[in-house]
């Protein structure tokens, strides 16, 4: 999604109304309870919260010019990788084997066998349509943010085709956009 | 009461910007290596050995040909360095980049378009100079940018795809027309 993403794809930036700001904060807090204690640092009530509207119904939540979360239409908010790296425990994790790293970093969606092979790890708690951190065999930090197409149990049982959509990965356009001015 | 979690500080590579552990999968691992040896030796223990043995090679080279200086210098070398063969998972050998120039028109906003030119560097063209020349010739903005994958490319504002082939072959005689391609509707078509 962010393969060729640049600031030129941002069609409008708006400081959102207080009510909308509250709603966004609330849904992020609900989705990521692990952020509860740092919410005031991340999305300070005093700083204006900017929503940047982009192509393909994509929204970026921007604070102090730093993109922190994104979502599609009214879908769940997902952290940027830079934010996830700081708070790695806020998301459920799935791990791909080493062989898949290259493909994930080229933007490919995550195929079931990359998760079920010996180098992969499936957290069976993960349901379908859930934002997840994509980790990699032998690596400490996440390399992508995914959105599951099927539950972890189904990924294991079906073991074929795309298990997780690759939403955002290291070195894609959003990764390179450290600031949005 | 739970304590406020402290943000983790990830070691990002000073060269490619990825977490240092991912440099090996990054755009140019070779360029990251000196930085990694300095800043993240624990992540790539093999690199230390590699650099030690390179250093040893250099010393023995100098001993053998003391009259020639700086042949194997790390940067100023005029001898093209042999690149190690990259291996894909499964042991397939990655083919070296084909010498091609790829031109693509990208529509950014509704009316604005940008023409991107990739691959000139494969013909020994300096991209910064090329972008200046292109900007001048077409009286528009041109800049060298990091491409979406790994390579640098030149972005020229406006749709100049039509005139550009002739300009490239006229300006850089090393680039044959037969090596120039357009991307049109997602397909690669030769310019000739
Ligand atoms: Zn690097």
From TrEMBL, chain A:
A Pfam family the protein falls into: Pre-PUA
GO cellular component: cytoplasm
Location within or outside the cell: Cytoplasm
GO BP: any one term: formation of translation preinitiation complex
Alphabetical list of SUPFAM superfamilies matching this protein: PUA domain-like (SSF88697)
An annotated Gene Ontology molecular function: RNA binding
Domain of life, source organism: Eukaryota
Main location (coarse class): cytoplasm
Gene3D superfamilies named among the record's database cross-references: 3.10.400.20
UniProt keyword annotations, A-Z: Cytoplasm
Domain PUA: 92-171
Protein name: PUA domain-containing protein
TrEMBL record, chain B:
InterPro entries: DENR/SUI1_TIF, DENR_C, DENR_eukaryotes, DENR_N, SUI1, SUI1_dom_sf
GO molecular-function term, one example from the UniProt record: translation initiation factor activity
Subcellular location: Cytoplasm
Region (Disordered): 55-93
Matches recorded under NCBIfam families: DRP1
Protein name, UniProt field: Translation machinery-associated protein 22
GO cellular component: cytoplasm; ribonucleoprotein complex; ribosome
A family per Pfam: DENR_N
Boundaries of every SUI1 domain copy: 101-172
Coiled-coil residue spans: none
Family (UniProt): Belongs to the DENR family.
GO biological process entries: formation of translation preinitiation complex; translation reinitiation
Signal sequence coordinates: none
Keyword vocabulary terms for this entry: Cytoplasm, Ribonucleoprotein, Ribosomal protein
Compositionally biased residues, Polar residues: 55-80
UniProt remark on domains: The SUI1 domain may be involved in RNA binding.
Subunit structure: Interacts with the 40S ribosomal subunit.
PROSITE patterns: SUI1
């Amino acid at each position: 999604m962010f393969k060729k993403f640049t600031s030129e794809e941002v069609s409008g930036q708006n400081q959102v109304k207080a009510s909308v700001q509250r709603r966004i904060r609330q849904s992020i807090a609900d989705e990521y309870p692990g952020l509860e204690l740092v919410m005031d640092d991340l999305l300070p009530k005093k700083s204006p919260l900017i929503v940047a509207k982009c192509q393909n119904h994509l929204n970026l939540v921007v604070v102090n010019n730093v993109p922190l979360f994104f979502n599609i239409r009214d879908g769940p908010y997902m952290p940027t990788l830079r934010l996830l790296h700081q708070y790695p425990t806020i998301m459920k994790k799935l791990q791909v084997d080493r062989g898949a790293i290259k493909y994930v970093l080229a933007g490919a969606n995550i195929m079931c066998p990359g998760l079920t092979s010996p180098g992969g790890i499936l957290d069976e708690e993960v349901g379908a349509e859930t934002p997840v951190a994509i980790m990699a065999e032998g690596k400490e930090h996440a390399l992508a943010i995914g959105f599951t197409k099927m539950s972890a149990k189904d990924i294991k049982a079906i073991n074929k085709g795309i298990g997780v959509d690759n939403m955002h990965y290291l070195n894609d356009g959003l990764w390179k956009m450290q600031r949005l001015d | 009461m739970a304590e406020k979690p402290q943000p983790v500080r990830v070691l990002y590579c000073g060269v490619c910007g990825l977490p240092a552990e991912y440099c090996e999968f990054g755009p140019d691992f070779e360029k990251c290596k000196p930085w990694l040896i300095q800043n993240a030796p624990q992540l790539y223990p093999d690199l230390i050995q590699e650099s030690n043995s390179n250093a040893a090679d250099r010393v023995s080279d100098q001993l053998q040909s003391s009259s020639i200086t700086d042949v194997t210098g790390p940067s100023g070398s005029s001898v093209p360095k042999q690149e190690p063969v990259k291996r894909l998972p499964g042991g397939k050998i990655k083919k070296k980049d084909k010498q091609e120039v790829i031109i693509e028109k990208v529509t950014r906003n509704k009316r604005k378009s940008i023409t991107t030119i990739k691959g000139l560097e494969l013909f020994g063209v300096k991209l910064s100079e090329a972008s200046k020349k292109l900007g001048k010739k077409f009286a528009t903005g041109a800049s060298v940018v990091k491409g979406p994958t790994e390579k640098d490319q030149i972005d020229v504002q406006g749709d100049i795809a039509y005139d550009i082939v002739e300009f490239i072959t006229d300006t850089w005689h090393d680039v044959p027309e037969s090596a120039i391609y357009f991307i049109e509707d997602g397909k690669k078509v030769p310019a000739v």
